[in-house]
């Protein structure tokens, strides 16, 4: 049996987190190591390890995450200027292998600097 990720444990109520949004398909929490004044993680309830592991059956969920990200950003006071980041793989910084979107805002990001 595969060990549950920290995000799965949060979703299942086993661990506390600062949940700022939830619906039937996803939750949003405050990042514990923020890289911007507003840094939230949008996490699908279904545990998909990486974006490349998503398939055709996840099409509606992935679309839902995009719409939810906009809603979460609005509710967090970011407005319509925010950055979405999805890390796919350890080599690019993914540390929890449960797909999640970083919603970053209230900071000006440089065009020539991709890290956040």
What does this structure look like?
It is globular and about 40 Å long. The protein has one domain: HIT-like (HIT family, subunit A, 2-Layer Sandwich), CATH 3.30.428.10. It has helices spanning 6-11, 59-75, and strands at residues 19-22, 26-30, 38-44, 82-85, 101-105. With 116 residues, it is of the alpha+beta class. The model has no long low-confidence stretch (mean pLDDT 94).
Task: Describe the structure concisely.
The chain has helices at 6-11, 59-75; strands at 19-22, 26-30, 38-44, 82-85, 101-105. It is of the alpha+beta class and 116 residues long.
Low-confidence parts: none
What is the name of the CATH class?
Alpha Beta
State the helicity in percent bands: 10-25%
Number of strands: 5
Our count of domains comes out at 1
- CATH H level: which superfamily? HIT-like
Radius of gyration: 14 Å
pLDDT average, as an integer? 94
Give the N-terminus to C-terminus distance in angstroms.
34 Å
Structural class category: alpha+beta
Question: In the CATH scheme, what's the topology name?
Answer: HIT family, subunit A
Dominant shape: globular
The major sheet is characterized as: 5 strands, antiparallel
Proper CATH architecture? 2-Layer Sandwich
Beta-strand percentage range: 15-25%
**SSE pattern, N- to C-terminal:** HEEEHEE
Number of helices: 2
Going across the biggest sheet, name each strand in turn: 1-2-3-5-4
């Amino acid at each position: 049996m595969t060990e549950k990720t920290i995000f799965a444990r949060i979703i299942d109520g086993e661990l506390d987190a600062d949940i700022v949004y939830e619906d039937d398909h996803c939750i949003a929490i405050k990042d514990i190591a923020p890289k911007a004044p507003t840094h939230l993680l949008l996490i699908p309830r279904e545990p998909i390890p990486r974006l490349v592991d998503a398939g055709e059956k996840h099409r509606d969920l992935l679309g839902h995450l995009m719409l939810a990200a906009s809603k979460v950003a609005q509710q967090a006071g970011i407005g319509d200027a925010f950055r979405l980041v999805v890390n796919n793989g350890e080599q690019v910084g993914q540390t929890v292998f449960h797909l999640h979107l970083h919603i970053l805002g209230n900071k000006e990001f440089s065009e020539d600097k991709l890290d956040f």
